[in-house]
Amino acid sequence: MTTTPDTTAATQTTTLLRFATAGSVDDGKSTLVGRLLHDAKAILADQLEAVTRTSAERGFVGGEFDFALLTDGLRAEREQGITIDVAYRYFATDRRSFILADCPGHVQYTRNMVTGATTADAVVVLIDARTGATEQTRRHLTVVQRLGIAHVIVAINKIDLLGYDHVAYAKVEAEVKELAEEIGLDTAHLIPVSALAGDNVAAASENTPWYSGPSLLELLETLPSKEEDTADLEPFRLDVQSVLRPQGGLAPGLDPEQFRDYRAVTGQVTSGRVHLGDEIDVHPAGVTTTVIGIDTADGPLESAGAPLSVALRLADDIDTARGTVLAAAGTLPQPRKIVRAEVFPFTAEGLRSGDRVLVKAGTSTVKAIVTIESRRNFATSASEPAEVLAGNDIGIAEVKLATALPVADFGEHGRSGGFLIIDPQTGATVAAGIHTPAEEGLG
């Protein structure tokens, strides 16, 4: 477990980092994000004035204001004093740009936390230093562990209410480390903070001389993003959105003679990087071909990596359409009709064995039947046999597909191992699933 990562000037970056905040209700997530935005000087003057005025109406005096108002954008949230949906905010410092997602803390909104964390490079989980880890803390840490979030930051909040006592903080820290080890969370950064007072949020606090690590903002400014972590490590994969055969105009960078027979497959690079001359496998055609052109709206490229959207010209005239999968030669997973998956229900009704659904993986949508195997007990972290997964459960299910799909192992390939489960009658998203080999499931 890492608590004091290197934050030297050599690690400075100007890239984009996506991060989410999570934690039990009233642990101070929105206040922390508001403080972070304020101390990073990412608040417009008129917004600050409005928040100050609203804070005064709520009883804040002496120029103080409610930092949570800087992120709680929904009227219902303001009236209840809680966060009930994922609130996205964008800001930047001199060292990095950020997209943050402030996720809800109530148990019934865990599905929103899953949504906010799915695309995150890092997740900040808050814990009230007075109460320590709760069942919802266990739930959130389990979610980020199962989603394979590379960087998990545990912010032990409200240390000002403990009088900045190191012994009291150390007890909570030991509890969190034990919990992380129990659920298999390999790496977490622990930071003592006070969202209200600003301790260790944007800068190191004099009130915690016993803590020598970075502040929260300093850590966020130096963590590598997913793109930096895996830019050239993962194999190339692209899920085809459409086939491009222009009827008029001229593709950027192409001469009229070349444009006359122009044909390309379009889509977003899901992982890895593709270069001119690379050999790729095509599913479901079952053939191998060569990339002879990489086109974008700004012109042709020599190579393209995730998450760029491109049009690829192929050496051979292959039958392709929406749902076709392109991958670096020799790396395409064996297409399968039965997928064992960890499932995160999104609706109150959840899922039950025998449900007939649609599965959307990449750009393919196929019929499927779900069989529930087990659910996680968050009080014990153990796996229990089950036939139903309720709205905020996490469990293992067997998903039998009508058509074989090359679904990857989520643990190794991330996004290409994930899929959505859809109600065929309403079109609503019922759950998210990630392909999990049998030996790596819950238990």
UniProtKB/TrEMBL annotation:
GO BP term, example: sulfur compound metabolic process
EC identifiers of the protein: 2.7.7.4
A Pfam family this chain is assigned to: GTP-eEF1A_C
Leading EC class: transferase
The keyword Nucleotidyltransferase is assigned to this record: yes
InterPro entries to which the protein is assigned, alphabetical: CysN_GTP-bd, G_TR_CS, GTP-eEF1A_C, P-loop_NTPase, SO4_adenylTrfase_lsu, T_Tr_GTP-bd_dom, TRAFAC_GTPase_members, Transl_B-barrel_sf
GO molecular function annotation: ATP binding; GTP binding; GTPase activity; sulfate adenylyltransferase (ATP) activity
Keyword flag Transcription regulation: no
Occurrences of domain Tr-type G (ranges): 14-230
Keyword entries, A-Z: ATP-binding, GTP-binding, Nucleotide-binding, Nucleotidyltransferase, Transferase
Name used for this protein in its record: sulfate adenylyltransferase
Source organism per UniProt: Brevibacterium sandarakinum
